[in-house]
Write a structure and sequence with these properties.
Layout (H helix, E strand, L loop, with lengths): L5 E7 L2 H7 L9 E7 L17 E7 L8 H17 L6 E3 L3 E4 L2 E12 L3 E10 L16 H5 L5 H16 L3 H11 L6 E4 L2 E8 L5 E4 L4 E4 L11
Parallel strand pairs: 1-2
Antiparallel strand pairs: 2-3, 3-7, 4-5, 5-6, 6-7, 8-9, 9-10, 10-11
Helix pairs in contact: 2-4, 2-5
Bound molecules: biotin (BTN).
């Protein structure tokens, strides 16, 4: 269960970094929100531009976390985002492993960080959801927001409440059912992928996040850590 404690800051460098620095004082499930971030980070060392108007938050997980369960939390978080945006009549698809897209444009991203080897000390789920931003400059053909899609001003805290409600609900469901739901929103099966310079088709995703890729010559099992979204097309 998450969200028993939610702390909101006007500005932080990065909500993930705040959690990392204060980990021993934060209870399992605490959510740290920043109205803006000065050093927001995305996956693979990208910058996550974080001006006022969108939702930026991190969840700290301390109980029941091991390396094996990272993909489970990716699945639960992405589905919670999908469901929270459905409220606005926005149909989101999930680009493996955890990008949320609307008509090919990114509306949300997840950055999971952890400490520990097999049994983790903690896991941080950092989430950015584009809410009221209407100008994306050079990213305008790659990013979108709830406001751009609905033409409405959106209350950011309502989106967070909706996320927390959905996350807790999904976490209590049977994982087989949850995973099938994830697959139904995933746009990756049968897509082409470049892996070590060769072209493959993705034939399946397994419950631990491994993807099976095939071409006429060979088949490989690849972990979600090894794949960059840039390699899809
Ligand atoms: C991505 O798609 O590259 C992941 C983006 C994750 C951004 C969020 S915003 C809240 C949290 N704090 C950060 O510095 N990053 C994550």
């Amino acid at each position: 269960m998450i969200g028993n404690s939610i702390k909101i800051f006007d500005e932080l460098e990065s909500t993930n970094d705040f959690v990392k620095m204060n980990v021993s004082n934060l209870e399992h499930g605490t959510i740290i929100v920043a109205k803006s971030q000065t050093l927001g980070r995305g996956r693979r060392d990208n910058i996550w531009v974080s001006k006022v108007g969108n939702l930026y938050f991190s969840i700290i997980l301390k109980d029941d976390v091991d390396r094996q369960s990272i993909f489970k939390y990716i699945v639960v978080s992405s589905l919670a985002i999908v469901r929270s945006l459905k409220v606005f009549n926005i149909a989101v698809s999930i680009k493996y492993p955890n990008d949320c897209l609307v008509a090919g444009k990114k509306i949300s991203g997840i950055l999971i960080e952890s400490l520990g080897s097999t049994k983790l000390d903690y896991m941080i789920i950092g989430i950015g959801i584009n809410i009221n931003q209407i100008k994306f400059d050079e990213l305008s053909d790659k990013a979108t927001s709830i406001k751009l899609l609905t033409k409405m001003d959106i209350n950011i805290e309502n989106v967070l409440d909706e996320f927390v409600r959905n996350y807790n609900e999904i976490l209590n469901m049977d994982f087989n059912e949850v995973f099938n739901m994830y697959l139904s929103y995933s746009m990756v099966i049968n897509k082409k992928i470049i892996y070590h310079g060769e072209e493959y088709i993705i034939s399946n995703i397994e419950k631990d996040g491994t993807i099976i890729i095939k071409n006429e010559v060979s088949e490989h099992r690849v972990s979600y850590n090894e794949i960059s979204l840039k390699e899809f097309y």
